[in-house]
Amino acid sequence: MVRIGLFDEGGLLALPNLAIARLAGYWQRQGAEVVYNRLGQRYDRAYVSGIFPAHWPQLQTTMACLDTTQIIVGGPGYALATAQPAPWPTLPVEVEAAEPDFAFWPDWPWSLGYSYRGCPRGCEFCVVPLLEGRQVRRVAVSYRDLLRPEARVAPRGQHLVDLAPNILAAPEAELAALWREVRELGLTVDYSQGLDVRFITQAVAEELATLPIYVRWRDRSGRWQQRRRLYLALDGSALLPQFEQAARWLLGAGVKPSSVYVYILERPGEEADALARVQTVAQLRMRPYVMPLHDYQDDGLRRWVNRRYYQFVPLAQYRRRRSRRQMRLPEPGAVATGG
User: Is 209 part of any domain?
Assistant: First the structure.
């Protein structure tokens, strides 16, 4: 029997790695023995997936320890860390079409998949143009097709995380059909990517206001919780007019501002621009969330925003306090004394 090893380095938000899940489903249907994240065994073939470049050292360590005839490495983290030329390799067609197997994630009871691939924007900081291209293409006929097999029989109450990079770029009629299906099947849906405010019209805002869009997570006791949440993207001040208009439509349609989280991209050298966007979002009583480009050294803005200190203390005062705390840190080897 063929033995396949699957290795996932650096997941996101406790979501299953969909590529690994599809590989698991494909190879199990070929009659292979599939093993997940287990070193110390001999494999006929091993697949290693990395989502973020920061996980490249872990990928290298895993590959160095593997006992296998063939190693296949993929994922945007690997491609970015090793400067792979575009277009990046993707899963074979037969694997991409395979039913994903989530058995290696027994605590994940929900559905996960892509309704659309690609994004027309081509933003310079985004991996989607390199990985999926700028042509928006439909990859699921319906949301029912994305549900776990057991949920397709009785979908009501099922939660679906749609990983489409820019769902609002879909043709209006197709998008309306998907949203109609959400209501008819009794689903809740999570659009984890920031919604593109340039595609939000008054009609779209009214649909989003009534659509059951939620995030779900486990609390400390292990129980699943859910909260109404819309994610918007505000990547630069050039988008402020469209963002403010979209916000007016959403709030006018009845969306609570506290349920709207706004991704604020912070580029090096553009902290003032990011701060202006944060202030606009805060004035609307929505929730800003700073995401630094390439995870460069935080100058305090990210923590000030993401921990909601902006609600209580001005940024300059927070930075002064932060600087004083850092200056009081003991020298290496020194013994800190209590007082």
Answer: no
